[in-house]
Amino acid sequence: MEGDAGLSESVAREVRACASEPEPMDSQKESPGPRRSSPGKKVWQQRLALLAALMAGAMLAFQWDLPVARWVHAHRALGIVREFFEAAEYYGQAFGTLLIIVTVGVLDPAKKRLLPWLLAASLGAGLTADVAKQLIERQRPRELDLANVEVTTTIRSVLPFLEGKVASHSFPSGHTATAFGLTVALSTLYRRGKTWFVILACLVGVQRVQSLSHFPSDVLAGAAIGLLVGWLITDSKLKDAC
C-alpha cells in the first residue's frame, strides 16, 4: 500500500508539473506577428483636409496667377539658378522618374518587386493629371501676352474633348503631380528621406512656375492629384509590403 501511495503521489507531481509548463516554442512561432495596419480614419481625415486646402488654394491662386507670371517674366532666372531649376524638373519628368525607380531596384534589390507600384504612384499621378487637362483648356503663361490678358481669358474652353481637342493644357501640372506621387511612394519605402523627397517635389512645382510652363494654381492642383494617387497606391500595395 505504501508503494501504491508513493506512486500516486509521484504521478500527481508530474501532472502538476505538466500543467505549469509553458507552451511549446513551435506554437509561439506559429502565431502571426504584428502587421502594419492601414491608415485609419483620422489619417484620411488629415489627408482630405490637406487636399481640400490645396484645391482651395488653387482656386484662390487664380487671382495671383497673372501677377506672379508677370513678375517671373520680368525677372527670369539666369545662369546657375536657371540650371538648378531645370535640373530639379527631372524629378517630375517621366524619364527622370524611371531613372530614380531603376536606381531603387539596383541599390535595394529587396524592393524590386515593388517597382511597378512605384511607377503606378508616380507616372499614374502624371497620367491622371493629363486626363484632367482635357476638362479645362487653359493656355500656358509662356503662350500669352501677359501684359494684355485677363485671368478669365487664359481659359479657352471647358470640356475641350467634346470639341475634338486633345492637347497639353496648363491646368493642372502633370510634372508636379508626377513628383508628388513619386514622393509619397518613396517616403513610404524610405521614411528617413521623406523631408528630402518633399523638397524635391516642391522644387519641381517652383520650376514649372519659374519656366512659365504653369501658373501657381496649376501647380497646387497638380500637387493635390499627385498626393491622392500616391496615397491610394501606397495604402493598397506598398504599406504592408515594406
From TrEMBL:
Cellular location(s): Cell membrane
Topology in membrane: Multi-pass membrane protein
Residue ranges of every copy of the Phosphatidic acid phosphatase type 2/haloperoxidase domain listed in the record: 114-234
InterPro entries according to UniProt: PAP2/HPO, PAP2/HPO_sf
Keyword Membrane: yes
GO cellular component terms given for this protein: plasma membrane
Alphabetic keyword roster: Cell membrane, Hydrolase, Membrane, Transmembrane, Transmembrane helix
Domain of life assignment: Bacteria
Pfam families: PAP2
Cytoplasm is among the record's keywords: no
Entry's Gene Ontology molecular function annotations: hydrolase activity
Region spans: Disordered: 1-41
Major place of residence: membrane
Name of the featured protein: Phosphatidic acid phosphatase type 2/haloperoxidase domain-containing protein
Source organism: Planctopirus hydrillae
